[in-house]
């Protein structure tokens, strides 16, 4: 149910006394906690109540209870709001899905009850209503029908919003408009503030004209009808008539509620105050105080001043090109002064705004602005800003118009904790193992000249590139994944300059180091897996064709794929997403890796983590799995030693496949299970992923270096050499017979080792 407006009598108070001033930077004793009922929440010693309840502890009813009325069922509705029937227009009519009737909850004779429902003709459209207004048709019916047709703002298109805005404007300007027509028209405007359609010139012109009409209506509302206040969930129109000689200033206040919607009992008007005041037991969400100069009170005793206030829930009718926002909700508060004496000009206008910051954010800066209809945008001319204490933004202007406080926030980042012991140990062992592997691999395959080694140069080079890129990735990860250029999460004082922020989210300019780490990690990890694929492809081609070497063009092709493709991919990702003034489109702030989450902390498929890493990595892993299957099947088929069913042969089969799976990086598939699981399964996969990936370098060393005869021989030789080293001592030789040291022949034996070549 969409719940629109409210019609009440004038809640104006006249008093020369003032109440408790709005707290500024001073500290006060926090009152004892209250026991708030019916969903109310205690905040700063005050119960913030839901819309349906009021009172100090939210125990007083402020709604009409659900009921059947004239054959239509209506749900619980706060005082003054509109309710729409559960009965809908049938499919096939132009109003299909819309309610068949509407009613309003009103306070009469001390009790709340629904008024007589107004039925809706299901064959009416907004275009029909717009045409019928000019023909002098029943405005009450047309206004109610337009209200029902816009009761589901999420379904409205841009042209619907434009037409509805034009209808509301025509109804409000009509000399034949009754109180009911005006209330329904303002209800329609309130619902239009909930739409989410793209701006266009026609729509903007219609809504701009509507805001001007609302300003005029607010000044003349009480003089042209029996009402002075119309309150809706998203819009408040307040009118006041005061004697200039009897008033120091007029204050309009919107009190905070749990939902953020406007309700009549949370709108206050004080027609004689000397400064900004807020009654005890209330928290102001938005406030405007208009102060008159002393000369008006002393010399204009017969002057009547008409004041009008319009409070918008958001700035949807004020589309700005200067200030871009995604998450901020900017309330717009209009103050207008009229009357017989046009020389009455306010001395000062003071505003207070209490913004609702998104979760895990805090205020960075704000500016005090007004809407300039000439520029069709916000302007700071004639306005200045005060402090921003207690979550309240203070603004001052020397004129009346549509005001707002444009603010920017900063994320309260939860930076990643230091790497755990398990990760550090695993990565450190992998680094040492890879260094030994690389040294031994170069010595055995590139430093010694032999025909066999030259023949297998392609596979040897691919292995070296795999070892090198994996080592580079681990070193970069271990030394730089923690963001060394962390932003301070302590709140900072807004600047004193009243400058319009570019957007609602402030992002510190990039320092460079974290972005460089993220780019290098992206590059080296993609390079590792592409070299895995290159090596696997070589292996399949050699095994299946029974050839000893590949064509000469294979070497430059493999280098281009292994090192060139990741570089292109990294460059494209940087070019598309990275900006110096907003690096978080490319990387994360909590740690140096590709951006993955949206502002709601949900995984986003539009972030580079998905399309620049997870997607290509997934395709590479699928390709590597296919290579593993082909290699295993081919090896077992062509190698007679692996076709046997004895235990030794089965062990060799498993070891061949397992070694190749480790080299091809198939343990990284566990990361995808980490992303799609939750609970206990998520924990298990996370541990397995951490152990398998951090120790990948060590696994490669065991399977491809430590098991080879050449490495074991080198280690054995080194051990024998170290153990044979002794401290030289003085010694003498004595011969027991003549010619002992004459030349003799000896017989030596060569230990011929069958060298194994790694796959």
Automatic annotation (TrEMBL):
Keyword Iron in annotation: no
Polar residues composition-biased segments: 484-502
Region feature (Disordered): 1-32, 484-508
Record domain G-protein coupled receptors family 2 profile: where: 419-708
Pfam families, per the entry: 7tm_2 (PF00002), GPR128_GAIN_subdom_B (PF22261), GPR128_GAIN_subdomA (PF22259), GPR128_N (PF22257), GPS (PF01825)
Keyword list, A-Z: Disulfide bond, Membrane, Receptor, Transmembrane, Transmembrane helix
Coiled-coil residue spans: none
Regions crossing the membrane: 418-440, 461-481, 520-542, 554-578, 610-633, 654-675, 681-704
Protein name, per record: Adhesion G-protein coupled receptor G7
Organism: Austrofundulus limnaeus (Annual killifish)
Lineage of producing organism: Eukaryota, Metazoa, Chordata, Craniata, Vertebrata
């Amino acid at each position: 149910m969409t719940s629109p407006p409210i019609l009440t009598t004038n809640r104006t108070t006249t008093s020369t006394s003032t109440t408790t001033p709005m707290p500024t930077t001073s500290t006060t004793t926090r009152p004892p906690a209250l026991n708030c009922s019916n969903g109310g929440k205690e905040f700063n010693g005050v119960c913030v109540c839901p819309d349906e309840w009021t009172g100090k502890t939210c125990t007083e009813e402020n709604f009409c209870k659900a009921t059947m009325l004239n054959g239509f069922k209506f749900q619980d509705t706060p005082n003054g709001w509109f309710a729409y029937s559960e009965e809908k227009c049938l499919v096939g009519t132009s109003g299909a899905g819309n309610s068949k009737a509407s009613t309003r909850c009103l306070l009469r004779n001390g009790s709340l009850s629904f008024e007589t429902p107004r039925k809706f003709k299901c064959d009416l459209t907004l275009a029909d209503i717009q045409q019928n207004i000019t023909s002098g048709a029943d405005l009450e019916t047309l206004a109610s029908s337009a209200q029902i047709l816009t009761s589901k703002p999420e379904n409205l298109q841009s042209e619907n919003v434009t037409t509805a805005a034009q209808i509301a404007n025509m109804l409000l300007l009509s000399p034949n408009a009754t109180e009911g027509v005006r209330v329904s028209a303002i209800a329609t405007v309130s619902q239009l503030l909930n739409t989410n359609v793209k701006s266009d010139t026609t729509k903007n012109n219609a809504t701009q004209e509507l805001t001007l009409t609302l300003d005029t209506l607010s000044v003349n509302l009480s003089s042209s009808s029996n009402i002075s206040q119309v309150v809706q969930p998203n819009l408040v129109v307040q009118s006041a008539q005061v004697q200039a000689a009897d008033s120091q200033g007029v204050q309009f206040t919107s009190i905070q509620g749990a939902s953020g919607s406007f309700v009549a009992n949370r709108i206050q008007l004080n027609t004689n105050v000397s400064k900004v005041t807020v009654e005890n037991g209330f928290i102001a969400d938005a406030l405007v105080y208009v102060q008159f100069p002393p000369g008006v009170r002393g010399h204009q005793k017969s002057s009547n001043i008409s004041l009008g206030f319009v409070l918008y829930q958001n700035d949807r009718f004020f589309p700005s090109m200067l200030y871009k926002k995604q998450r901020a909700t900017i309330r717009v508060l209009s103050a207008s002064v009229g009357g017989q004496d046009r020389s009455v000009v306010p001395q000062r206008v003071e505003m207070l705004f209490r913004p609702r910051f998104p979760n895990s954010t805090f205020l960075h800066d704000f500016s005090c602005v007004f809407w300039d209809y000439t520029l069709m945008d916000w302007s700071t001319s004639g306005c200045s800003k005060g402090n921003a204490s207690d979550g309240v933004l203070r603004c001052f202007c020397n004129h009346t118009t549509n005001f707002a406080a444009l603010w920017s926030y900063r994320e309260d980042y939860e930076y990643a904790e230091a790497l755990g012991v398990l990760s550090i140990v695993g990565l450190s062992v992998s680094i040492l193992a890879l260094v030994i592997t690389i040294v031994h691999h170069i010595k055995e395959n590139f430093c010694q000249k032999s025909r066999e080694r030259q023949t297998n140069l392609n596979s040897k080079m691919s292995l070296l590139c795999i070892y090198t890129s994996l080592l580079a990735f681990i070193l970069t990860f271990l030394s730089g994944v923690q963001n060394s250029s962390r932003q301070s999460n302590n709140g900072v004082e807004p600047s004193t300059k009243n400058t319009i922020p570019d957007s609602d989210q402030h992002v510190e300019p990039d320092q460079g180091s974290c972005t460089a780490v993220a780019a290098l990690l992206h590059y080296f990890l993609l390079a590792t897996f592409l070299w895995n694929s290159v090596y696997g492809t070589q292996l399949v081609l050699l095994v299946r064709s029974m050839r000893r070497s590949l064509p000469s063009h294979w070497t430059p092709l493999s280098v281009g794929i292994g090192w060139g493709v990741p570089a292109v991919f990294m460059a494209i990702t940087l070019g598309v997403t990275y900006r110096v003034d907003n690096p978080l489109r490319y990387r994360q702030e909590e740690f140096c890796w590709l951006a993955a989450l949206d502002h709601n902390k949900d995984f986003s498929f539009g972030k580079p983590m998905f399309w620049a890493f997870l997607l290509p990595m997934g395709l590479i892993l699928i390709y590597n799995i296919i290579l593993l299957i082909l290699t295993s099947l081919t090896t077992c088929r062509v190698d007679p030693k692996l076709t046997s069913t004895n235990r030794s042969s089965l062990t060799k089969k498993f070891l061949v496949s397992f070694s190749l799976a480790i080299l091809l990086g198939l343990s990284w598939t566990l990361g995808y299970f980490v992303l799609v699981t939750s609970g206990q399964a998520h924990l298990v996969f996370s541990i397995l992923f951490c152990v398998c990936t951090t120790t990948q370098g060590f696994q490669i060393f065991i399977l491809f270096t430590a098991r080879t005869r050449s490495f074991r021989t080198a280690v054995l030789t080194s051990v024998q050499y170290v153990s044979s080293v002794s401290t030289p001592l003085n010694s003498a030789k004595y011969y027991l017979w003549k010619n002992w040291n004459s030349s003799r022949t000896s017989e030596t034996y060569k230990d011929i080792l069958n060298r194994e070549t790694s796959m």
